[in-house]
Amino acid sequence: MAKFWKTYKQTIILIGAIIIGAIIGIVAKDKAKVLSPLGDLFLNMLLVIIIPLIFLNVTTAITKMEKPKRLGKIIGSIILVFVITSLIAVLIGFFSTRIVNLVDTGSGDAILAELSTEEETVEQEMDIANRTVSLLTVNDFSKLLSRDNIIALLVASIIVGIAINMTGEKAEPLKKFLISANDVMANIVKIIMLYAPIGLGCYIASFIGTFGSEIAVGYLKTFIIYLVVSLFYFFVMYTLFAFVGGGKKGVKNFWKHVWPAAATAVGTCSSAACIPVNIETCKKIGVPDDIAETTVPLGTSFHKDGSIIGSVFKLMFLVCLFGVAIDTPEMFFQVLGISLLANLLITAVPIGGGTISEMLIITMMGFPVAALPILTIIATIIDAPATMLNVVGDDVSSMMVSKIVDGRHWIDSKEETKSEG
Length: 421
What we know:
- Helix content is 78%, strand content 0%.
- By secondary structure, the chain is mostly helical.
- The chain has one domain (2-420): Proton glutamate symport protein, CATH 1.10.3860.
- The radius of gyration is 22 Å and the shape is globular.
- It starts with a helix and ends with a helix.
């Protein structure tokens, strides 16, 4: 029991605070708005750390990258598998949220107006080329320090990280400084999260009190639908992926050995904590050692099926909340693209990656930054099933990589090698 409490302490407290806040909002209604300043305090603290958090996390993540054991074919195969499975995850997440509205409110415009800041942005007519340039770059260094230019900051952070690696030993002092600063930032995030139960509880109380209990129902509906989609993905899609990777024997080996990794994922809610057991799981399935030891660490950073599906749910929750129409091909591809970008580029961030990903969704969809706590709540309630998909997805990915690299009979070859040994 003590171990369970230690593992889930923060999540339980957060969910408890959210439930209490929702009850206060439902009962007190408009009077709950008096708690709004306490919620705004949490939002402001989050927004203040966004810029340094992105720069330090992305830059240091790139500077720490090491070359995997095998080059060429393994890396190319990993990238191919990750991209294909991520696309499948996005599509399943999208179509599952199109069937049912995650949240039903008749006051989308009012909510949008309430959350929007007083600052007005003037949209200029630009062609696609100029829009791309303005998205990826800014014309003044100081503009990188604005949360309105998140993508440009990401690009700059990646360039700085690559430049540090290119510089080699001469850049070691700067690299150590940035890593040290990133460690400090990690503790700043921890300090802010100590206030999260109060901040999120007051935020949701004020939000529900202002706009009605439909919001609370929307969170419950989101969790239930996400859980159903997760179970479908876990049992159906991962069985299919295992069959593609290793045939009937692959499916048999996968379901025989995957449970320790899945249980560890649910128990820890941390993909990184599952790396040792997940590598061992892959090896027991029959995946060659070098492929297992390359795919799992890379997958922990860059391949997260559960988080990608979660990003679609977050995005679609805001779409439903604000009454945004997505019935055009352009909006469809925008949702898919943003969901992929928010994860394939951001999941490498070890601390605060979820917050950065959520800011990216909000910024690229043009939603008010005050919607950030809404996504934080969703991230909290779907954390356990999302982590399970993130972790187990690397197991089936390693099986498909093995097939590409070593041929369709890779699993038989591994077993023959074991018997000879």
